[in-house]
Amino acid sequence: MRAMRSGLLLALTVGMLSIACAGEASAQLKAAARAPGASAPPSRGGGYDGGGYRGGGHGFGAGLGVGTVLGILSTMPPAGGQYGPQGPYIEDGDGAPPPRRQPPRRSTRRGASGAPPANERRYVPDEIVIEVPNSITPQAIAALERRHRLTRLESQRVQLTNSTLFRWRIPDRRSVASVVRALEGDRVVSAAQPNYLYTLQEDASAKAPTAPAEGDAAQYELAKLHLPQAHSVAKGDGVLVAVIDSGVDASHPELAGAIAATFDTLKSAFKPHFHGTAIAGLIAAHSRLMGAAPHAQILAARAFDPAGDSAEATTFNILKSLDWAAANKARIINMSFAGPADPAIHRSLEAAYKKGIVLIAAAGNAGAKSPPLYPAAYAEVIAVSATTADDKLFEASNRGKYIALAAPGADILVAAPDASYQMQSGTSFSAAEISGIAALMIGHKPDIKPAALRAALLATTKDLGPKGRDAEFGAGLADAYRAVIEEVAPPKVTGEIKHRHKRLSSDAE
What we know:
Elements: H1 2-34, E1 47-48, E2 53-54, H2 66-73, E3 82-84, E4 87-89, E5 123-133, H3 138-147, E6 151-158, E7 163-169, H4 176-184, E8 191-200, H5 221-224, H6 227-231, E9 240-245, E10 259-264, H7 274-284, E11 297-302, E12 305-307, E13 310-314, H8 315-327, E14 332-335, E15 337-338, H9 343-354, E16 358-362, E17 381-387, E18 403-408, E19 412-416, E20 420-424, H10 427-444, H11 450-459, H12 480-485, H13 493-508
Parallel strand pairs: 9-11, 9-14, 10-11, 14-16, 16-17, 17-18
Antiparallel strand pairs: 1-2, 3-4, 5-7, 5-8, 6-7, 8-13, 8-15, 12-13, 19-20
Helix pairs in contact: 7-10, 8-9
């Protein structure tokens, strides 16, 4: 037995010496081949071919190539080194091993990057919005903040997406795009993006300081939309319509008893604004004016901060408003504003749609050459363009395959702060009228789903422009009476949404 062991040991020793010799010979051959003017040395069945040593010769190990020898040698620690838990390492000068290298962080981000397109400027220039799972600890968030050199401004737990949103400031001169990309590589972050800016969709050039003397007679949209006939069937009793807008004047006579709840995302002192007041009135007015759904209830969310004649809102404040509206059982959300594509807002809208909330938005007032504006261009949203008193397209109204239908939006008599009235134009007001009609439909059929409601709206329109659906009027001018009484089987929701996404992609191109 001892003899056998000795023989094996001797064989192993000879074999290792042969491997070492083969490695040394290979190195010598390579050096000779690299020498200026040198020719390849003779070999016995092998030789250097420029890429490695071809095996040759005789004896134990002679048939092993350099790759085999290097493979064996690569498993040995360097001189003075040891094996660590993840392979060999070299000791520091004090004899202590360096810290164990951490594996790369894996991001929990979903989908494409949230970095803004190169030509996009509609966002707060030094702010970031990030989304993280609710399971992330405060300590991890604090560490994330330090890692990326950011300053926390506020946070919001979002029920719609079961996540938490943070708004952070970039305190140095780094670009929003570079910070977004850095955050997306962090395992703590589900999504990162700019804090986008949105604007209300009224046409400021069409304003007049006071209403004409005709009063209700100036509301030509009532006859155009067949609202008096619809009111003989339904008035939207108790249907909750969320208005995400500027400050609504709840004391206006047109809105007496119509404001169910209010929500303010802004830190500035509350001040009623003409746009929010007008939108709420077009939905639920019931004094001198007649709203589309005079018995509906308004959930008024102030997200837009007045800046001169108009107002702006950020991604963060719109997200907070959407979540509040859903938590307060809104059946409809009116969004009379427009801006860039926004991944975080889209995720919340998808969640709201799945909860059975009808989503309606202004198509935008950027005119014929504008690309699609959002949230109207999202597949879950009913996009509304604006018409004039003679059924022409309002000149500033956006066009596109995402337009669902149209409603009057030029020279509309609306409620304004301090019990006053104004004439206004824009797709904002067309969207509000459709939100009111949707409230009539829900009041008449409380269990109607968003897909069925949309189908009924589009199936009962008056065709305008080119025959059939088009990029200006969508399916046509809304008809409130026919929509309320219509019986339409809902399309398959997933198929409808996928079809609209496909159309929008080609439209954007």
